[in-house]
């Protein structure tokens, strides 16, 4: 980069930081000055060295944590806490300037604001326009196999069945991970890639993944950030920023609309997920891989190809298969999850699961409405099978997942409720089972808003496990199993009626002293 | 070693009578400062807090803090065997699983020992924060008992509203409704007959009369009752025990239905 140019940018940064009080992150810098993210980081470093005082720096630390088992971490740390944070890392860790700003924002989401606005604008550009987000040109990782043509819209309809399932997986994962609208380019490329690289759908996944990661890297460092530990308060609020961005991805829905039913499920799902949060969902195992890869890439801008190869050779090779099994399982699970949101799939990820599984069930319901009867039978049949599958799966991935969970639970939990609100006001037809006041089980098909459901899920999730035992005794397992999730509201009146008796029939309800005084 | 000698033994009898209907089993906690009890009723709607300070006893010895789980009905049965003028002594040895009630007749010519088995009770001790109440009503305890009894024949909840005008107890039932208003009245011959209302802001709360009636069993303990109300807190119905402590009843108000929905059912 020419010296003069560099100087100009540095001046610009100065005015941005000092006058406009903007948070200048390397991502933003890279996109707005059309320089590679690496260069952007170096520029920022230079800037920091020049203007030591009068500004606050947020560093991105990445490396292996000291704790056992070692886990790879990327952490955003303010300049003042840098030495302290370094202690947490084992041996060397890479330290890069993430952003410079006049002061550390109180609301960590502010760190991302500028980026999101920028990303939004870039994606709002017409499809035909090529911009740095679309072609991902400044990403640290490039893949020569991937051809980008902006004019074309994916022909993913052609995708084979298993592949679409994979799509589902990967898309889910990507949405969840990226939470930005970077999906478009990926989507359009993916089908092209698959014939190129191989017939094996597993390869496709790989490609998709590397794609995802690539975009990750450039468009959304938040992913990496998501992996970060809670030491930095940022990862909570960030969800909001994500949300604003993701909600703009209307064009994404169009793209997804062309994907076959399976993927559409994924779409619904993805939408829901995008709205509901960055859910690594069931695919947490691969999600984790993805995350790890993202981390790696994040860390190794320079030897990108190397990493790519390494990734595909070791990690992906093995894991793809696992992943694939998962997506198969998932189909079963999807079918059943309608009725059994309480799959004890992974205890360690319980909340996670509950959040994720329910939307899935919903999506399924939505799409397979007419199949419901059939579905049920299948469910009954599969419920046992599923149990074992699930267990197996649990076995397979629990260890991997645990890590992810540990990393992500925080952010996810926070994001979920928050993001539920902006979720599309779509109303869906949903089969609900509830216990009416005479104690009968009532199945009804109702239109239900997403938010409402989300809320209910949240409330009921705590109870699911409790009720499960009781509910499974009914003669229709699937429906009965569902009731804990949705029929919760229905079960309550009975309780209430009981509680009401001592008082006036229509009067207010007796409060509990424990709601006023705490146990000591 | 625990030894508490209470000259006015009838006090203890009255205390037991006042709480045994509300609470079945409870831990009596003895410390150097006094003899106390805190217990919730089985439905966790009401809470009793009893305190008998050490100074109120003629002789008070408590070497180390001890918690004695007792069945209040059984304890009451034993205390009923004491005469109203008897001196009651509560004795317990460290590590013992029994407690002894000793009754001495005023003339010292009859001494009875009753030994009662203790029980292990999972105590749920609640932290009761000191609170500023919106309104505090002090009135003759008999008057309050009468109001509760009267209203419970008409409805099963009472709305207690305190305004500048006074305190209003109202109920509504199948046969009709009732309102009883007590105005502030300090111009009486005896101070214990006064009705005093301290109000910071108007408050109106609904309570189950069943519990209120149960609280009024403590009427013999004190001539006056103090009712403290705050819109976001349980009501406190307090009966002072002459110069040595109190019995306080806390009762959670009835809550409007919709508010309640936000709370998951336990």
UniProtKB/TrEMBL annotation, chain A:
Matches recorded under InterPro entries: POLD3, POLD3_sf
A family per Pfam: CDC27
Major localization class: nucleus
Listed PANTHER family: DNA POLYMERASE DELTA SUBUNIT 3 (PTHR17598)
Stretches with biased composition (Low complexity): 491-509
Compartments reported by the entry: Nucleus
Keywords assigned: DNA replication, Nucleus
Biased composition, class Basic and acidic residues, residue ranges: 307-317, 392-413, 433-443, 450-469
Keyword Nucleus: yes
GO biological process: DNA strand elongation involved in DNA replication; DNA synthesis involved in UV-damage excision repair; nucleotide-excision repair, DNA gap filling
Origin: domain of life: Eukaryota
Protein name per UniProt: DNA polymerase delta subunit 3
Region (Disordered): 298-318, 392-520
An example Gene Ontology CC term for this record: delta DNA polymerase complex
Cited Gene3D superfamilies: DNA polymerase delta, p66 (Cdc27) subunit, wHTH domain
UniProtKB/TrEMBL annotation, chain B:
Main location as per UniProt: nucleus
Pfam families: PCNA_C (PF02747), PCNA_N (PF00705)
GO cellular component, one term: PCNA complex
Domain Proliferating cell nuclear antigen PCNA C-terminal: 127-254
Subcellular location(s) per record: Nucleus
One BP annotation, GO: translesion synthesis
Residue ranges of domain Proliferating cell nuclear antigen PCNA N-terminal in the record: 1-125
GO MF: DNA binding; DNA polymerase processivity factor activity
Keywords annotated in UniProt: DNA replication, DNA-binding, Nucleus
Cited InterPro entries: DNA_clamp_sf (IPR046938), Pr_cel_nuc_antig (IPR000730), Pr_cel_nuc_antig_C (IPR022649), Pr_cel_nuc_antig_CS (IPR022659), Pr_cel_nuc_antig_N (IPR022648)
Role this protein plays: This protein is an auxiliary protein of DNA polymerase delta and is involved in the control of eukaryotic DNA replication by increasing the polymerase's processivity during elongation of the leading strand.
The family this protein is said to belong to: Belongs to the PCNA family.
UniProt-recorded name of the protein: DNA sliding clamp PCNA
Organism: Cucumis sativus
């Amino acid at each position: 980069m020419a010296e003069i140019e560099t100087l100009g940018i540095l001046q610009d940064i100065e005015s941005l930081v000092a006058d406009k009080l903007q948070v200048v992150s390397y991502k933003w810098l890279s996109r707005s000055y059309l320089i590679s993210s690496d260069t952007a980081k170096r520029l920022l470093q230079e800037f920091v060295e020049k203007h030591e005082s009068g500004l606050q720096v947020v560093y991105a630390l990445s490396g292996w944590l000291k704790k056992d088992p070692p886990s790879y971490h990327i952490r955003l740390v303010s300049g003042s806490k840098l030495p302290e944070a370094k202690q947490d890392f084992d041996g060397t860790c890479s330290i890069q300037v993430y952003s410079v700003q006049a002061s550390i924002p109180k609301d960590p989401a502010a760190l991302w604001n500028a980026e999101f606005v920028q990303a939004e604008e870039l994606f709002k550009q017409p499809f035909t326009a090529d911009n740095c987000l679309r072609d991902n040109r400044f990403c640290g990782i490039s893949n020569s196999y991937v051809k980008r043509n902006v004019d074309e819209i994916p022909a993913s309809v052609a995708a084979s069945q298993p592949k679409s399932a994979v799509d589902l997986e990967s898309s889910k994962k990507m949405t969840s991970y990226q939470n930005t609208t970077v999906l478009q380019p990926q989507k359009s490329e993916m089908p092209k890639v698959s014939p190129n690289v191989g017939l094996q759908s597993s390869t496709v996944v790989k490609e998709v993944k590397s794609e995802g990661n690539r975009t990750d890297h450039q468009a959304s460092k938040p992913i990496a950030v998501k992996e970060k530990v809670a030491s930095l308060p940022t990862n909570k609020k960030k969800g909001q920023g994500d949300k604003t961005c993701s909600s703009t991805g209307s064009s994404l829905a169009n793209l997804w609309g062309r994907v076959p039913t399976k993927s559409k499920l994924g779409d619904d799902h993805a939408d829901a997920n995008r709205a509901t949060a960055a859910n690594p969902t069931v695919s947490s195992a691969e999600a984790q891989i993805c995350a790890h890869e993202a981390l790696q890439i994040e860390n190794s801008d320079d030897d990108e190809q190397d990493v790519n190869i390494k990734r595909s050779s070791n990690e992906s090779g093995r894991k793809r298969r696992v992943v694939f099994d998962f997506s198969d399982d998932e189909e079963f699970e999807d079918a059943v999850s309608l009725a059994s949101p309480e799959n004890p799939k992974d205890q360690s990820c319980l909340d996670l699961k509950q959040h994720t599984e329910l939307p899935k069930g919903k999506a399924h319901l939505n799409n397979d409405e007419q199949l419901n009867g059939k579905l049920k039978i299948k469910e009954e049949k599969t419920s046992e099978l599923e149990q074992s599958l699930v267990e197996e799966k649990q076995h397979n991935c629990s260890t991997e997942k645990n890590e992810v969970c540990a990393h992500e639970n925080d952010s996810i939990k926070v994001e979920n409720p928050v993001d539920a609100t902006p979720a599309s006001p779509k109303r869906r037809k949903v089969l609900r089972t509830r216990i009416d006041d005479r104690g009968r089980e009532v199945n009804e098909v109702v239109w239900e808003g997403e938010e409402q459901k989300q809320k209910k899920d949240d409330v009921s999730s705590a109870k699911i496990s409790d009720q499960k035992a009781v509910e499974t005794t009914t003669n229709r397992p699937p429906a009965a199993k569902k009731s804990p999730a949705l029929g919760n509201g229905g079960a309550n009146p009975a309780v209430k009626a009981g509680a009401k008796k001592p008082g006036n029939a229509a009067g207010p309800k007796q409060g509990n002293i424990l709601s006023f005084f705490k146990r000591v | 070693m625990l030894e508490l000698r209470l000259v006015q033994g009838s006090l203890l009898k009255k205390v037991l009578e006042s709480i045994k209907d509300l609470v079945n089993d409870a831990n009596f906690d003895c410390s150097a400062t006094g003899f106390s009890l805190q217990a919730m009723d089985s439905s966790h709607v009401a809470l009793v807090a009893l305190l008998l300070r050490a100074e109120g006893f003629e002789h008070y010895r408590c070497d180390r803090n001890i918690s004695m789980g007792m069945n209040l009905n059984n304890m009451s049965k034993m205390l009923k065997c004491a005469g109203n003028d008897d001196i009651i002594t509560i004795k317990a040895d460290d590590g013992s699983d029994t407690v002894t009630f000793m009754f001495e007749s005023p003339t010292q010519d009859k001494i009875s020992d009753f030994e009662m088995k203790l029980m292990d009770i999972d105590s749920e001790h609640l932290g009761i924060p000191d609170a500023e109440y919106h309104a505090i009503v002090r009135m003759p305890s008999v008057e309050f008992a009468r109001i509760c009894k009267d209203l419970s024949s008409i409805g099963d909840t009472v709305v207690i509203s305190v305004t500048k005008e006074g305190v209003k107890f109202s109920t509504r039932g199948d046969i009709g409704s009732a309102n009883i208003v007590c105005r502030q009245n300090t111009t009486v011959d005896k101070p214990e007959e006064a009705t005093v209302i301290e109000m910071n802001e108007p408050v109106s709360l609904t309570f189950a009369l069943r519990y209120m009636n149960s609280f009024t069993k403590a009427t013999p303990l004190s001539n006056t009752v103090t009712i403290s109300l705050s819109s976001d807190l349980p009501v406190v119905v307090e009966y002072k025990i002459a110069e040595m402590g109190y019995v306080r009843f806390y009762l959670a108000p009835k809550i409007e239905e919709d508010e309640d929905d936000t709370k998951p059912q336990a």
